[in-house]
């Protein structure tokens, strides 16, 4: 069997295990939520352990995970790094104001070249971009801010230094019943 759902079968509950057509928003049941929570905690958890957790067989759990991937609920698996262990002890959130003559695509392309930028969001409001930077120390942050200000189309930056991180990297799930 291929890794894709046949569009002709996508609405057939037998072939999809009661999952909706590809691309449609899907309601997550309790089993899906438990599987997702377990995978968020440890993406390498064996299917046998997931099966014990949700009360299904390992092949049934593997099918559930595969279907969640196929319909786009699970989009990938990543390695989580400890920034402090890599010498990146300073985190800053930086807002960027775009000049009137600035081009958002050119600015974004230039921002992508700065390795210290962990996340970049194009936003509505006074600022055009919000960035999350990780650097070794305050001197490195000052250097990064100087490089940011030299990018054509950036008129100002607003920087907030993070004192501590309570949690991060959490993917939101819709409320139960949605």
Series of H and E elements:
HHHHEHEEHE
Tally of distinct domains? 2
Class computed from helices, strands and strand pairing: alpha+beta
Per CATH, what is the topology of the largest domain? Alpha-Beta Plaits
What is the level-2 CATH architecture name of the largest domain? 2-Layer Sandwich
Into which percentage range does the β-strand content fall? Answer: 15-25%
Principal-axis shape equals: elongated
- Strand order in the largest sheet: 2-3-1-4
- CATH class category label of the largest domain: Alpha Beta
Runs in which pLDDT lies below 50 for 5 or more consecutive residues are 1-23
The biggest sheet, with number of strands, parallel, antiparallel or mixed sense and barrel status, is: 4 strands, antiparallel
What features would you describe in this structure?
It is built from six helices and four strands. With 178 residues, the protein is of the alpha+beta class. It folds into two domains: 64 residues, Arc Repressor Mutant, subunit A (Orthogonal Bundle); 80 residues, Alpha-Beta Plaits, CATH 3.30.70.920. A four-stranded antiparallel β-sheet has the order 2-3-1-4. The radius of gyration is 21 Å and the shape is elongated. The protein starts with 12 loop residues before the first helix and ends in a 16-residue tail after the last strand. The N terminus is likely disordered.
């Amino acid at each position: 069997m291929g890794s894709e759902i046949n569009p002709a079968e996508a609405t057939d509950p037998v072939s999809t295990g009661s999952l909706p057509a590809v691309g449609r928003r899907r309601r997550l049941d309790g089993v899906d939520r438990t599987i997702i929570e377990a995978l968020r905690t440890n993406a390498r958890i064996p299917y046998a352990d997931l099966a014990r957790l949700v009360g299904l067989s390992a092949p049934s759990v593997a099918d559930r995970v595969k279907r969640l991937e196929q319909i786009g609920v699970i989009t990938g698996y990543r390695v989580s790094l400890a920034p402090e262990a890599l010498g990146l002890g300073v985190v800053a959130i930086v807002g960027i104001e775009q000049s009137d003559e600035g081009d958002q695509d050119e600015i974004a392309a230039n921002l992508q070249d700065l390795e210290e930028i962990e996340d970049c969001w194009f936003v509505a409001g006074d600022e055009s971009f919000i960035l999350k930077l990780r650097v070794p120390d305050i001197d490195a942050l000052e250097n990064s801010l100087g490089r940011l200000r030299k990018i054509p189309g950036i008129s100002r930056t607003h920087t907030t230094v993070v004192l501590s991180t309570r949690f991060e990297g959490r993917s939101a799930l819709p409320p139960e019943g949605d």
